[in-house]
Amino acid sequence: MFYHVKDLQYNARVSAPDPRFARLLLEQFGGSNGELKAAMQYFVQAFSCRNPFPEKYDMLMDIATEELGHLEIVGATIQMLLGPVNGEMKDVVENMEINKMMNGRAAKEDFIHQAYTNPHFLVLAPGSPALTDSNGNPWSATYVTANAEPTVDLRSNLAAESRAKIMYEYLIPFTDDPYVKETLDFLMTREVAHYQQFEAALDSIKPNFPPGIFQTNPKYSNLYFDMSKEEEARGPWNEGSSTQLKEEWQYIDKPQEYVTSTDGLTNVTPKGTDRTEKMVKEKDEKLAKERKKMILSKTPAKDMQWSHYQPDGNMKKNSKTNKHSN
Ligand SMILES: [Fe+2]
Q: What CA–CA distance (Å, rounded) separates 51 from 47?
């Protein structure tokens, strides 16, 4: 269950209304890299972890819940930045103060006018945040990625936290309000904290690369295709040893010839790697068995019950005490 505490996690403050910035900040409320996306992503990912990875479930739900708290902070900030808009919109008769403000400001600064004329801020939910991005596009579940595989989901979360961090970095220069800057600094910093938490969680799963079970084919895992002519850039992405599988990069400088001579890559002999197709197949089978056994052993097939209640009100020992299980 969720229990709402009316105090914010961080004391959001605003010096003065700024509808222009409220509109930009909507990006972090209902946008593709916003707080709702983060909350929903970790929330949805948590379900598949509940039994096999109780410690990951605990972390995902903790961070999802914190992200909901951040959504609340962003919403509260937008509400304050819109200041008198809601009240002014109630004066539907005439001579609305907001009209005077719009006319006066629009003449001076078109950008501010744009913010005021965000239809969501005026006619859908006057003076209040809506679940849209800064251009009014409705929030979408397509922003959320969850694949029921922690070696994939946790990597997805590293990308999500990186994007959320850079969004705050882009937003900060657009406000002069020191209070709003402080709030954004807090929110940005938490993304960096979450990044490292997800990174450590990924690192605690061994092996975790390649993501999933299949170890992938050594015929193709270390090939670099030079798909353009001249000014060939060389670097650790196409020379030396690969980052995870530690294979020597094979630089294919004539891709078309290589494809033709290998009968469309069907006749490739692995080079620069200790991995063989036989080894890979054995590892696939071993890992598949191990993971299946591990997950099924922790997943009851009948008489299922998500929670175990104790008469004294404390949750039965489960995920919280199981921190180090794998
Ligand atoms: Fe985050």
A: 9
Domains, the chain, in order of start with CATH, read: 17-82+126-202 (1.20.1260.10), 221-296 (no CATH)
Q: Please, what sign has the CA dihedral across residues 18, 122, 142, 204?
A: positive
Binding-site residue numbers are 35, 58, 62, 67, 70, 161, 194, 228
The DSSP output letter for 123 is: I
Annotated binding site for Mn(2+): 35, 67, 70, 161, 194
Report whether pLDDT(111) > 80. no
Query: How many A from CA of 119 to the centre of ligand 1?
Result: 29
User: What is the arithmetic mean of pLDDT over 143-149?
Assistant: 97
Q: Could you tell me where the DSSP H helices lie in 82-218?
A: 85-90, 97-108, 110-116, 119, 150-171, 178-203
Whole-angstrom distance, CA of residue 322 vs CA of residue 49:
13
Model's pTM, two decimal places? 0.88
